[in-house]
Amino acid sequence: MALSKPYTDVPGTIIFDAEQSRKGYHLNQFCMSLMKADNRARFKANERAYLDEWPMTEDQKAAVLARDLNRCMALGGNIYFLAKIGATDGLSFQQMAGSMTGMTEEEYRHMMISGGRSPEGNRYVGEDGDAQAHRQPQGSGARAATTPTRGA
């Protein structure tokens, strides 16, 4: 029986939950291997051969080779593990985040310094709907600001 996951409808967001963790286990273990200098050297010498030592999917390997971190996340990668790939390439986390948003490092830095992304478009698709049942109208049609209780 699949779990209900109302949090999956946040536009542009990949939630790293238990399912994503299972899907990305070998991808994330590969990333952690890059913490050792000899593994980084082996990876840089022949990236495909090193990746082939890991029981990752072909999609995962292709995403790593393309340095498509958004795709890696969709395939179960955790950003904190994926940062090891960027570090291996000599990139800062800021440079990696910029590439993931389609911005240059400077554009990304400016956005973060000036207050971050606009919340516009970053709401639940079902906001004020089924995805947040605790915010449904109560009684005579007036909105009641209720907080879900523990266990509810």
List the helices and strands and how they pair.
Elements: H1 18-23, H2 25-33, H3 37-45, H4 47-51, H5 58-66, H6 69-74, H7 79-88, H8 93-101, H9 105-113
The percent range for strand residues is under 5%
Oligomer: single chain
The H-and-E topology, N to C, reads as: HHHHHHHHH
Specify the CATH architecture of the domain at 15-90: Orthogonal Bundle
Point out poorly predicted stretches: 129-152
CATH topology of the domain at 15-90, anyone?
Answer: Protocatechuate 4,5-dioxygenase, Chain A
How far apart lie the N and C ends? 20 Å
How many β-strand stretches? 0
Description of the molecule:
It is a single chain. Helices cover 47% and strands 0% of the residues. The chain has 152 residues and is mainly α. The chain has a domain at 15-90: Dioxygenase LigAB, LigA subunit (Protocatechuate 4,5-dioxygenase, Chain A, Orthogonal Bundle), CATH 1.10.700.10. Helix 2 runs parallel beside helix 7 and helix 8 packs across helix 9. 16% of the residues are buried.
Summarize the structure.
By secondary structure, the protein is an all-alpha fold. The chain has helices spanning 18-23, 25-33, 37-45, 47-51, 58-66, 69-74, 79-88, 93-101, 105-113.
Observed structural traits:
152 residues; mainly alpha; Protocatechuate 4,5-dioxygenase, Chain A; flat; disordered C terminus
